[in-house]
Task: inverse folding
């Protein structure tokens, strides 16, 4: 499904150039749950951003099925994010002073879905993360765990093929973290491919495969028994 | 998508209501000024036109001086005489009525009441030229005019001032300066004209009596004439000029040392002044609109910076650069259009208030309202473009990382 070949990312140039990613080769199959781990500065977030089409590699090729993503224009990248990907961020990244329902409806606006269907789909997504009783709460009135559930609902409402999660439990306590991970795992079991960055082993254990990065290269990887 | 962006814009404006309102203030003031200026200008023009036609749009003012604008110097001009008036009356068939007019400000006395008023020496034609009707009594007898008898016809204001008990003034003897005259008639009320002058504040006497008792001269400082219906004013004017040039022995190449003016000419002058004022004040309003537009641009730039993260989130979920551009453009346009609508309401309010206070016609021009609103929206689009472009050119990953 996803194939990275010789992906490198260099920030700056000349003497101050920083090689964040060095010739990464990675293949992710449809329906996989991949965790990316590594110490700070290892390049895991950069790798995730490239996979999420938010950032472009300095060199190498990124292929999604048969499409070469790194030859995409800005508009094509936006469409790729719009229809194929769903995002979950560490800091939830919800719109402030905006209801849970409106937050979840937001990606559907860009898909050109009519208001009535948007509302129905957003309600269904919020129900699937157990927040049907909080649809009209403003994001700032919700707890951290609830906010991340809204963010997950927003990510899955467009029925994406790939879920990109950047430290989804980074701001949550252990119990909430496990609840969120169970939720993400349930979506993975329903067929969504999940790529997640984390620095916690127990969170990575929810994945089917863990990739360890160090200094911009894949140090090792481990497949988990289900 | 557009409707969603519109709703989003309304939500953003409501979220920062105070800031939005202050931002739109420049547009509000600009639009309110334009609307008020243009509408009040039009109302005033219409009222002036109306009152001038009430005064008699077929009236000609013949003065023994050149047209040097209002208050032209008459000191060195040869004055008219009663003979001039008589010859004009008998020789020009286009004229319906013609009367000499001489006036002076004099105190009128009756018993222990006194009141400073305008005393006018005229002939009976004056009442026809000025559309005066009688409320009580009669006009002057021919014999009274010929011999300059001490008789007078009074206006309503004078009656109210010196006959406070409500008694009929007919037959009463009022004192003007050092002589007395018998009131033979009382004029119908006309009220104030457009320039605010009380038209009923006058005492009318035979011209001959005025010349003998008040001015002490045979001069006629002004001649007023009305032209018959269906005869163009210009034609009558030319005829009058010909007769007077002959009477004054002017050679062909010599300039006239008198003037024949109509109210329409005066009207043109007034309307020129009004349009000039409207243009000047509108220019001031336009500057206010530009300043308002810059205010909107400023706040939109602040808003884009504040909402950098939101822009990043929107781009992450699939918004294209043009979606972000449209969103911020619509926000700026809605903000300025809202300012335009509030300005329009305030402008109409000011128009009505001023029109009522000044007693002029209330005119709300729909065309200027639409133009003002469209202009306000264009300002929003123009000044919203820079912030919107700034927002849409952001890199999604940089926007998401923005703290």
Result:
């Amino acid at each position: 499904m996803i194939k990275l070949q010789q992906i490198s990312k260099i920030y700056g140039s000349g003497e101050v150039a920083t090689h964040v990613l060095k010739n990464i080769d990675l293949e992710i199959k449809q329906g996989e749950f991949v965790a990316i781990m590594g110490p700070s500065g290892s390049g895991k977030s950069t790798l995730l951003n490239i996979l999420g089409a938010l950032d472009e590699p300095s060199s190498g090729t990124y292929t999604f099925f048969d499409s070469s993503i790194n030859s995409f224009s800005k508009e094509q990248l936006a469409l790729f994010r719009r229809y194929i990907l769903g995002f979950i961020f560490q800091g939830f990244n919800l719109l402030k002073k905006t209801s849970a329902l409106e937050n979840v409806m937001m990606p559907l606006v860009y898909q050109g879905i009519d208001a009535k269907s948007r509302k129905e789909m957003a309600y269904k997504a919020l129900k699937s993360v157990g927040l049907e009783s909080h649809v009209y709460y403003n994001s700032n009135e919700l707890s951290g765990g609830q906010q991340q559930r809204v963010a997950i609902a927003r990510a899955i409402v467009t029925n994406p093929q790939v879920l990109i999660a950047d430290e989804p439990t980074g701001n949550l306590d252990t119990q909430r973290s496990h609840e969120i991970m169970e939720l993400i795992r349930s979506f993975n079991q329903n067929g969504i491919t999940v790529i997640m960055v984390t620095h916690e082993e127990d969170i990575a254990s929810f994945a089917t495969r863990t990739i360890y990065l160090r200094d911009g290269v894949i140090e090792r990887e481990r497949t988990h028994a289900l | 998508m557009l409707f969603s962006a519109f709703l989003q814009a309304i939500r953003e404006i409501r979220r920062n209501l105070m800031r939005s309102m202050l931002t739109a203030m420049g547009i509000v003031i600009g639009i309110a000024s334009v609307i008020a200026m243009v509408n009040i200008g039009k109302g005033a023009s219409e009222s002036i036109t109306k009152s001038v036609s009430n005064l008699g749009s077929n009236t000609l003012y013949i003065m023994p001086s050149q047209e040097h604008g209002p208050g032209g110097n008459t000191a060195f001009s040869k004055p008219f005489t009663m003979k001039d008036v008589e010859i004009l009356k008998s020789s020009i068939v286009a004229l319906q009525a013609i009367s000499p007019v001489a006036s002076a400000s004099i105190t009128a006395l009756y018993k222990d009441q006194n009141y400073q008023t305008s005393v006018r020496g005229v002939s009976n034609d004056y009442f026809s030229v000025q559309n005066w009707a009688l409320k009580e009594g009669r006009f002057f007898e021919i014999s009274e005019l010929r011999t300059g008898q001490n008789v007078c016809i009074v206006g309503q204001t004078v009656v109210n001032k010196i006959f406070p008990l409500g008694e009929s003034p007919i037959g009463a003897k009022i004192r003007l300066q050092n002589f007395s005259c018998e009131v033979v008639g009382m004029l119908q009320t006309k009220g104030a004209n457009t320039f605010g002058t009380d038209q009923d504040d006058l005492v009318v006497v035979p011209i001959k009596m005025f010349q003998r008792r008040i001015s002490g001269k045979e001069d006629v400082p002004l001649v007023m004439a009305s032209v018959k219906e269906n005869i163009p004013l210009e034609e009558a004017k030319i005829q009058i000029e010909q007769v007077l040039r002959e009477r004054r022995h002017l050679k062909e190449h010599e300039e006239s040392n008198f003037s024949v003016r109509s109210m329409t000419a005066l009207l043109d002058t007034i309307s020129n002044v009004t349009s000039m004022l409207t243009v000047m004040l509108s220019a001031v309003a336009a500057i206010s609109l530009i300043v308002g537009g810059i205010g909107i641009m400023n706040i939109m730039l602040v808003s884009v910076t504040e909402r950098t993260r939101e822009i990043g989130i929107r781009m992450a979920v699939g918004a294209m650069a043009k979606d972000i551009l449209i969103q911020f453009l619509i926000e700026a346009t809605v903000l300025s259009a809202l300012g335009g609508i509030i300005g329009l309401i305030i402008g109409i309010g000011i128009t009505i208030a001023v029109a009522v206070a000044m007693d002029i016609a209330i005119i709300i021009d729909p065309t200027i309202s639409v133009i003002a609103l469209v202009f306000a929206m264009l300002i929003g689009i123009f000044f919203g473009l820079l912030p919107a472009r700034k927002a849409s050119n952001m890199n999604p990953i940089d926007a998401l990382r923005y703290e």
User: Anything to note?
Assistant: Residues 2-51+268-401 of chain B form one domain. Residues 263-306 of chain B form the longest helix (44 residues).
